[in-house]
Design brief:
259 residues; mainly alpha; 82% helix; globular
Length: 259
């Protein structure tokens, strides 16, 4: 397993995938510049922690591109087939790819967080929310990233065609965005405009929001969970999603015909 992970890291170092780091750095600096210009033009208050906590959806798109590029390239150049010929088990190949991609995604996330806080606090001021609240929501985002990678690895490992996988992953992201907005809007309408929603239906809406990584990102961005539980509940949903997809992915990949 360690040899496979080291091989993956070396391949990333030599591939164009390393430019993901530059993209993340660019996005972080661009976020700072945009909000700096915004605060000077309309004199709004910029909350530093929100610059980080609002990035949950963007992270999903970046993860989709990164995972598909990495695993799609393995199918294209025959790397997966060669690993199997060399005697590595399919379980180890799948898990090594998953661990590698999670590690890279989390490193990118830490770079983004570091730049935002490192530049944002001197420019916009100190953190307004409580330290514990910020830490908990940053950890929530960590679990969301792991869920994103688990979903995309599941799809990319089981489908050989890179065009199909990237299209499917992006479609899933878009569907999550629209579904989350739909469910949240219905719940907020019932709360603010006294629109009646049966209790069972409300529970279903809340569960669907909490299951989807994009829905969780919305919760973190707005500083609350549905239902009104602690943010730790989101870690559980993300962990369940990641675990189930990884187990199913391992089973299917074990039986997959590698051309």
């Amino acid at each position: 397993m360690i040899n496979l992970i080291n091989s993956n890291i070396e391949r990333i170092r030599r591939s164009k995938l390393k430019y993901i780091f530059l993209i993340v750095i660019f996005l972080a600096i661009l976020t700072i510049i945009y909000n700096y210009l915004k605060i000077n033009s309309i004199n709004n208050i910029i909350i530093v922690e929100d610059l980080v906590l609002n990035c949950g959806v963007v992270i999903g798109f970046i993860c989709a591109i990164m995972v598909n590029f990495f695993i799609g390239e393995e199918y294209t150049d025959g790397t997966i087939r060669n690993k199997i010929i060399l005697g590595y088990s399919r379980y180890k190949i799948y898990l090594a790819n998953l661990i590698t991609l999670i590690s890279i995604a989390l490193i990118c996330y830490l770079i983004y967080v570091g730049i935002i806080f490192g530049l944002g606090i001197p420019i916009f001021g100190n953190i307004i929310s409580s330290f514990n609240d910020v830490i908990i929501r940053l950890i929530d985002l960590t679990f969301i990233i792991i869920a994103y990678i688990s979903i995309y690895t599941f799809i990319s490992q089981l489908i050989n065609n890179q065009v199909i996988t990237i299209s499917l992953c992006l479609l899933i992201m878009i569907l999550q965005i629209f579904s989350s907005l739909l469910f949240v809007t219905k719940l907020e309408d019932s709360e603010y405009y006294d629109t009646y929603i049966p209790e069972n239906t409300k529970v279903i809406y809340e569960t669907m929001i909490n299951i989807m990584p994009v829905g969780q990102a919305y919760e973190i961005k707005n500083g609350r969970t549905l239902p009104e539980d602690s943010f730790e509940i989101l870690w559980i949903y993300s962990s369940i999603t990641s675990s189930i997809l990884t187990i199913i992915g391992l089973i299917i990949f074990k039986r997959k015909d590698i051309n």
